Amino acid sequence: MKIVVCLKQTFDTEAKITINPDGKINDQGVSLIMNPYDEFAVEEALRLQEKNGGEVTVVSVGGAKAQDALRQALAMGADKAVLVTAELAAMDEYSTATILAKAIAGLEYDLIIGGFRAVDDGSAQVAGRVAEILGLPVVNVVTKLEVADGKALATREIEGGSEVVEVPLPAVITAQKGLNEPRYPSMKGIMKAKKKPMEKKDPAGLGLDAAAVAARVCALEYFLPAPRAAGKIIPGEPAEATAALVRALREEARII
Amino acid sequence: MLQKGGNFLLEALNAADVFTPEDISDEHRMIAGTVADFALNELAPRVEELEHQPAGLMRELLVKAGELGLLSADVPEEYGGSDLGKLASIIITENIVAGGSFALGHGAHTGIGSLPIVLFGNEEQKKRYLPGLASGDLIAAYALTEPNAGSDALSARTKAVLSADGKHYILNGEKMFITNAGFADVFITYAKVDGDKFTAFIVDRNTPGFSLGAEENKMGIKGSSTRSLIFEDAKVPVENVLGEIGRGHVIAFNILNIGRLKLGAGCSGSAKMAIGLAAKYALQRQQFNLPIAKFGLIRQKLARMITEAYAAESVIYRLAGMIEESMEDKATGAEIAAAIEEYAIECSIAKVFGSEVLDYIVDELVQIHGGYGYIQEYPAERLYRDSRINRIFEGTNEINRLIIPATLVRRAMKGQLALLPAAKALAGEVLNLRAAAPEEDGRPLAEERTMLAMAKKLFLLVGGQAVEKYMDKLAREEEIIGILADLAIQIYAMESAVLRALKAWEAGPAGAQMKLDLARAFVFDHYPQLEKWAKEAICFLFDGDMLRTQLSIVKRLCKHQPADLIGLRRQIAARLLEAEKYVV
Ligand SMILES: Cc1cc2nc3c(=O)[nH]c(=O)nc-3n(C[C@H](O)[C@H](O)[C@H](O)COP(=O)(O)OP(=O)(O)OC[C@H]3O[C@@H](n4cnc5c(N)ncnc54)[C@H](O)[C@@H]3O)c2cc1C
C-alpha cells in the first residue's frame, strides 16, 4: 500500500508572533515545527504501513527550511520525501493545493493523508482542494481509520457525535486530534533519516508556470489582537463578592 | 583542529579551534529537540510522582526512554546499541533535565553504570550485559564510594578473596550512597583482591551474600534511589572481574572523566531551564503595579544568570566537540578511554564550573520568586534542592580542583605539555611585561582577547613560581593549587565564551550580537577576580622586595579598562525577557 502524507512546517505553537514594519509576519528566529495535525497524519500512515506493508512518502510545499519537517517524518519512519520550494511573492490555499496536487500526481498512491488544518493559518482547505484537483473522495476530521479491501472506513467528528464513512481508495483523509498518539522519532531513526531520499522540486519543474500558481486571495493586512485589559478583582466576603460579580457580568459586561 | 588537553593554557586559540552549540549537525539538532519534547511531555508530568519513589516508576520511565534509544547512545551497534557518539550522548544528557530525578537515574545508568562494561568489558561480558543495558531490560549502578572511602576512593576496604575452588571471588565490605541501587540489576563495584589489588567487578543483583541498605532521606533529587550495598561473603563468579586484577583504578578514574563532562552537561541544561522559569515568573509577578521584570535589580539578576549559563554551555559544547573529534579513529574501549583521559583537566573544569553556575542560578531563581520560591508548589524550590548534589558527587569540587593543577604538573614533568618551557620563557620577559593595548584586527572582542592572553600569562606566572618554590611538595599547598585551578577554570570559560561569540560573528554578524554581549559581560565580570586570586597566591609565595616586584607584575598584567557592565546587562536582560527563555 502506497501512502502519501502532505505536511506543512508551521511556527512552534509557543512562538511569539510579531509583525514587521512592512506589515508582514516576522519569521526571523522563530522556531519551526511540523504542523501538529500533520504529525497525526504521518503517524497514521506509518501504522498502516506497519500493518499492510508498502511505502510512505511525505510531501511538503514550503521554503528550504521545510526540509526539517520532512526529515522529522523520515526520522519517524517515512521512506522518502518530496519538497517543492515555491519562491512566490504571495501564496494562498489555491497555490499550495495546485502545487501539492501536481507533485502527488507524479507519485503512486492508494491513500493520501494530511492534517485537517494547519495551526498557523488554520484554513483547513488544502487537503480538500488537493482531493478535488485529483478527483478523489475526501473524508475530513477523521479520528479513527481502518483500511481493507480497497476501502477506507473512517470515523469522523460531527456536531454532537461521530459518523462512520466508507470510501473507495484512493481517497484523501484529513487527521484530527485523537486519531492516534504520534511517536517520537527514535535516535536511530534520526540518524537514518539523513540517508533517506529527499527529492527537491519547484513549480516550474512540475510544469506549473507562474500564472497557474498565482494566489487568488490576497491578505490585505495583518494585525495582532488588542492586548487584554487587566482583570478586576472583586474583594469582600464570598456572598457579597458573588453578588457583585453577577451584577458586573450583567450590567458592565452584559454577558448574562 | 584537535588540541591537546590542557593546551588552552599555553596557546592563543582561534575561533575555528573551538566547537560551539551553533556547529551541531541537523541530526544532533533533531536529537536535542526530540529529547527535550520527550522530557517535557513524558517525564515532566511524572516528576512530582517520582519524588516519592513509587515502586517501578523509574524503571518504567527508563524503559520508555530506552524505546527511543536514549539509553544506548554510548553502546556499540553490535551489542544492541545505537552508537551515536559522545556528542550525541552529551546532547541527550543536556536535554533530558526536565525529567528532574529521572535525569539522575538516566545518568547513573547510561554513564557511570554502563560505560565500564562498554569500555572495559571483555567480549563475553559485553554480549551478556550490553543489549539489556541498551534497552533498559537491565538497569545499572556504579558503586565506588564506601562509608570510609569517599574522596579517597582508593582507600576502599572492601576485600575480595578467591574461593578454594577458584570459581568465585568472595567479597566483603560496604558501599555507600549508590544511585539506582534500589532497583538496579547490575552493579559495577570495586574491591581489593587479597586486600591490596584494587579491582573492578560486575555484581548481579541476585548474587548470594549481596544485599542493600535502606533508602537514604536526601535533601534533593528525592526521586532517585540512593542506598548502600552490603557484601557479606558475596560470591561473585571469576568471569565477572572487569578488566585486570589490580587495575581497577584505571576503570574508576576513566569512567569519572566522562561522568564529569556529562554532569556538566546536565547542569548546563538545568541552568537554561531555570532561566526560562525565572524570566517567565519575573514577567508575570506584579509588585508596585509593575511586573518585577521591570526592576533594575531583577534585570541584573536575569542578565547575570544567562551570562553564566552561556559560558557553561560554551564550555560543555567546546569540550564535547573536542572529545567527539578525538574519537574518530578510536575503536577499542581502552583507546576511547585514553582519548577521554587526554581531556581530564577539561572534564574537571566542566564539572566544577557547570555545577557552580547551576547552584548560583537556582539560588537567584528562588530569590526572583520571593517567598513563593521557598514554597514547594513552585519548581524553583525543587530545582534549588536538586542542584546542590552536583558539587558533591563524581568527585567533590574540591577534589576536581586538585586534579586540574596536579594533572597539568604531571604532564609537564613528563614533557607531554610544554608548560615548563613556557613558564621559563615568561620569566625571561616578565620584567618588561605589561598588558598590551588590544590589537584591533577588525573583529569584535579585541580587548577581551588581549585580556585572555594576559590571563594565560598570569596563570604561568603564578604556576611557574609555585612549582619553582615547592617543586614536588606543591600538592601540600592546597590553597595555591585551588587558586591555580580557579584561574584555569575561568580562563577556559572566558575563552569558550569569547571564541564562540567570535565564531558566530564570523559566520554572520547579524546573529551574533547577544553572544558578543554575553561574552563581554562574562569576561569583564570575572576578570577582576583573577587579579585578586593571583595576588593572594603571590603574597603567600613571596615577601619583601620580591613580593613588591611580583605584585607589580601581576598588576601590570591585569590592567584593563573596565566596561559598562550595567548598560551591557540591561540589553542582555531585555533580549531574555523578550524571548521569555534562554536565548543567545
Ligand atoms: C545523592 C548521592 C548520590 C551518590 N551516588 C553515588 C554513586 O552512584 N556511586 C558512587 O560511587 N558514589 C556516589 N555518591 C558518593 C559521592 O561520590 C561521595 O559522597 C563524594 O565522592 C564525597 O565523598 P564523601 O561523602 O565521603 O565526602 P568526604 O570525602 O569525606 O569529603 C568531605 C569534605 O572534605 C573534602 N575533602 C576530602 N578530601 C580532600 C582533600 N584531599 N583536599 C581538600 N578537601 C578534601 C571534600 O571535598 C568534602 O568537602 C553519591 C552521593 C550522594 C550524596
Give a structural overview:
The complex is a heterodimer of chains A (256) and B (584). Chain A has two domains: 2-213, 3-Layer(aba) Sandwich (Rossmann fold); 231-256, no CATH class. Helix content of chain A is 29%, strand content 25%. Chain A has seven helices and eleven strands. In chain A, strands 9-8-7-10-6-1-4-5-11 form a nine-stranded mixed β-sheet, sandwiched between helices. Chain A has a two-stranded antiparallel ribbon with strand order 2-3. In chain A, strand 4, helix 2 and strand 5 (80-84) form a beta-alpha-beta unit. In chain B, strands 1, 2, 3, 4, 5, 6, 7 and 8 form an eight-stranded mixed β-sheet that branches. Chain B has helices at 26-43, 47-50, 57-68, 86-95, 101-113, 115-120, 123-135, 248-284, 296-326, 333-341, 344-369, 379-387, 397-413, 419-429, 446-470, 478-507, 513-541, 544-558, 565-579, and strands at residues 140-143, 159-162, 168-179, 186-193, 197-204, 210-212, 226-237, 241-242, 286-287, 290-291. The two termini of chain B are 25 Å apart. Chain B has four domains: 17-139, Butyryl-Coa Dehydrogenase, subunit A, domain 1 (Orthogonal Bundle), CATH 1.10.540.10; 142-246, Butyryl-CoA Dehydrogenase, subunit A, domain 2 (Beta Barrel); 249-398, Butyryl-CoA Dehydrogenase, subunit A, domain 3, CATH 1.20.140; 405-579, Butyryl-CoA Dehydrogenase, subunit A, domain 3 (Up-down Bundle). The chains are: A alpha/beta (256), B alpha+beta (584). Chain A binds chain B through residues 16, 68, 71-72, 75, 184-188, 190-191, 193-194, and chain B through 26-27, 30-31, 34, 37-38, 67-70, 72-73, 82, 84, 88, 92, 579-580. The structure holds flavin-adenine dinucleotide. Flavin-adenine dinucleotide (FAD) is lined by residues 108, 142-145, 150-151, 177-179, 218, 226, 389, 392-393, 396, 398-399, 402, 478 of chain B. Flavin-adenine dinucleotide binds next to strand 1, strand 3 and helix 13 of chain B. Chain B: Belongs to the acyl-CoA dehydrogenase family. Chain B: Residues 25-137 form the Acyl-CoA dehydrogenase/oxidase N-terminal domain. Chain B: It comes from Desulfotomaculum copahuensis. Chain B: Keywords: FAD, Flavoprotein, Oxidoreductase.
